[in-house]
Amino acid sequence: MKILLSSALIVSLFIFTTGCSKKDESSAPESTTFTAVTTITDKDGNVYTIGYDQVSSNNQDAYLQKKNAGGQTVWRKIYDGSPIDSRGVWITLDANQDPWVVFSADGGSGGSTAFNQKEVEANAFTGVYKSGYGAGGGPRVVIAAHINRETGKIFKGSYLGAKLTDGNTNSISADKIGINGGRMVLEVTSAYKPPAAGGTGNFTEHPDATEENKQGSYWKLRMVFSADFSRLEESVVLK
Predict the structure, then answer these.
(1) What's the pLDDT score for residue 109?
(2) What are residue 194's phi and psi, to 5 degrees?
(3) Which residues of the chain have pLDDT under 50?
(4) So what's the pLDDT on residue 1?
């Protein structure tokens, strides 16, 4: 017995199925548009620039500044005033025109001049994936942050690093940055050994960080933070 479908029903089914596929694709991290820029302009003409000040012969401090469409400085924030080297690395904007940034730090520091204390809103580094540098200063790590566009302060952020066999922090750096569904997505280069996905305070060595999956002497990964930075939702070794 043949079942005949009307042309109207066939069109309706086609629209429904293609619409569902498009929605699923747009929410996938793979559809993220990655950038690697230090200057970006929002839809109102405000210009954000990220970088670092060479404050002494052996010390750098990360900054982010905002200028309006007329070129006047709205704010300029120094996010780390400690003895460690820190840099502003990359910046992107979300659909609300909020800045999301990546900083780097070459060690841990404490007190009111540290990343997690200096230019922050209340609880910016509370309940996040990693609230500090960890043990063993020296290797470079990432500080990923969502910035309040009105004040320049860190609204929410997290540290991100690898680990040595002795548990000390090891190097990780961000190659690209993107936003997907209100979440920060990073492509990173990691030394021994990068983290698998996990929640607050959790570090598990990535099971796919094997010798055969290295690109040169490092691993390349795509990592996705939750919107509130409480979890590393995805950590995928790129082969």
Answers:
(1) 82
(2) -75, 160
(3) 1-30
(4) 46
Query: Token pair of 8, please?
Result: 């109207």
pTM of the model: 0.86
The Cα–Cα gap between 223 and 188 comes to: 7
pLDDT, position 2: 45
Determine the 3-state secondary structure of 10 from DSSP: helix
- Please tell me the distance from the alpha carbon of residue 38 to that of residue 178, in angstroms, as a whole number: 13
Instruction: Give the integer Cα–Cα distance in Å for 144 and 128.
Output: 11
Compute the distance between CA of residue 195 and CA of residue 145 in angstroms, rounded to an integer: 18
- In 3D space, the residue among 179, 177, 153, 154 whose CA is nearest the CA of residue 74 turns out to be 153
Q: What is the DSSP-derived secondary structure letter of residue 212?
A: G
Q: Is 156 helix (H, G, I), strand (E, B) or coil?
A: strand
Count the neighbouring beta carbons within 10 Å of the beta carbon of residue 206.
19
* Apex 168 CA angle, 164 and 169, nearest 5: 85
Residue-wise pLDDT for 35-62, tens only, equals 999 999 999 999 999 999 999 998 999 9
- State both tokens at 238: 């790129």
Structure tokens at 37: 């820029």
Using CB atoms within 10 A of its CB, is residue 90 exposed (0-12), middle (13-18) or buried (19+)? buried
